[in-house]
Amino acid sequence: MSWRKQQLKQYYNGNGIMEQDAQLIKFIQDHAVTKLCLFGEPDLEYFAERLPGIEIYNQWRQETNYMLAFIRTNPYVNFEQFLSQLFNIVKGAPPDYLYVAINKYVVVTEQEWPDLTDDYDADLLDNITKVLTPNSYQEVSRTYREDTGQSFNFVHPTTNIYYERTNSTNNQV
Amino acid sequence: MNEQIVQTTKFNNINDTEFLWNMYYSSHPMVDFKSNPVEASGILQFVARSCKFPGTVVTIDSFMSGQATFDVDQSYELEAFKGLWPESYSTIIPTMWHVPTEIKYDNVIAVGSHSFKYMTLDRYVEAVEHLLKLTCSGGHLVVCMPKLHLQYHRLRYKPIDLIDQLTNRITATISNSVEFHKDFYLEIINE
User: Fold this and answer.
1) Over 60: is that where the pLDDT of B21 sits?
2) Of B6, B16, B19, the CB nearest to A12
3) Is residue B6 less than 8 Å (CB to CB) from chain A?
């Protein structure tokens, strides 16, 4: 049983859906996404059950019309490497929509970051946006919340952000 | 979708220990000794070196039952983890904040990371000050600083900066620090 399903079974008799998952699925449906690539999200079957008819992959392919779901829950995210990977993806085969969810508790960084505020979540997302904006992405929405361990952050991070590619001819709303 | 949208893990209802530890992506070495013998031994050796002997010892959420090489005078375990130690002699308390502070000890050991999870740095400082109340003058506190799970701005502060922050805020001396299994462990001497 996947980690996601274990947690839902533990607390909700398997009858619930995490808010972050529900938002992601709704975004996919609202934007008529037909091909989806998940990175760092092992629970493909869970999403496939709830997105019938949509092609879902967990390996990157050089195709257009992808929405890329980038969900990081692995121990220790090197933030510089994370941004570098994002850059390579949007330069190589830019998807129409991009979803990034970062587990703020496992971020490590090696460099000194300028222009920081007191808002850690906002600073994480702003620095992600700085990488994506020059590559024709604009923010659609962002979410983060205070979390003292009660949220499902370690399955699907609560710090997350949606982007759409501004120069895509395929975007559908 | 007809499923109920849910937000929280209902944290206090956890009773599946394997589930709990997997949730934090690691097994604390002191719980999963067999899987982490080197780190567990390292923590125990650090604790033994950092204690003031001869002296009285109290442990809090520290999984020390049967593993310490020295005698423990009083032992407290958190209620959420009482299932881990069903035959332990430990006194069960709801949280670390429920440890009575009337009795002072030469050594206070609090090496379980769960006690401090998701605390802000300010709250962690309060927690350390609270534990120092248990120590005699000149007593030793050996405490976990769970750098992975404290709430702090990780782009602004490197984990090592946390120790500097703590140094500047407590009325005691951090005499030693080590890193085991993604957490810091500190020896703090009460002034």
Assistant:
1) no
2) B6
3) yes
> Measured on CA atoms in the order A37, A38, A44, A48, is the torsion positive or negative?
negative
Q: Which residue of A has its CA nearest to B6?
A: A18
**A107–B25: do the CB atoms touch at under 8 Å?**
no
Q: Tokens for A40, please give them.
A: 């760092």
Contact of A16 with chain B, judged by CB distance below 8 Å, is answered with yes
Q: Name the residue type at position A152.
A: F
Distances from the Cα of B62 to the Cαs of B29, B102, B110, B132, in angstroms? 11, 20, 5, 16
Report residue B134 CA to chain centroid gap. 15
Residue A7: band (very low, low, confident or very high) from pLDDT cuts 50, 70, 90: confident
Chain CA centroid to CA A74, Å: 13
Residues, chain B: 191
pLDDT > 90 fraction of chain B, expressed in percent and rounded:
46
Q: Count Cβ atoms within 10 A of the Cβ of residue B13 and give its class: 0-12 exposed, 13-18 middle, 19 or more buried.
A: exposed
Answer yes or no: do B1 and A25 touch at CB < 8 A.
Answer: yes
Number of neighbouring beta carbons within 10 Å of residue A146: 10
Confidence band for B10, pLDDT divided at 50, 70 and 90: low
Q: Determine the average pLDDT of the residues in B87-116.
A: 88
What SS3 string covers A98-148?
A: EEEEECHHHEECCCCCCCCCCCHHHHHHHHHHHHHHHHCEEEEEEECCCCC
Q: Is some CB atom of chain A closer than 8 A to the CB atom of B24?
A: yes
Contact B153 A118 (CB under 8 A): yes
pLDDT band at B25 (very low <50, low <70, confident <90, very high): very low
Cβ within 8 Å, pair B155-A22: no
What one-letter code names the amino acid at A9?
K
- pLDDT tens digits, A48-67: 999 999 999 887 776 656 77
pLDDT digits (tens, 9 = 90+) for A101-135: 998 988 889 899 999 999 999 999 999 999 999 99
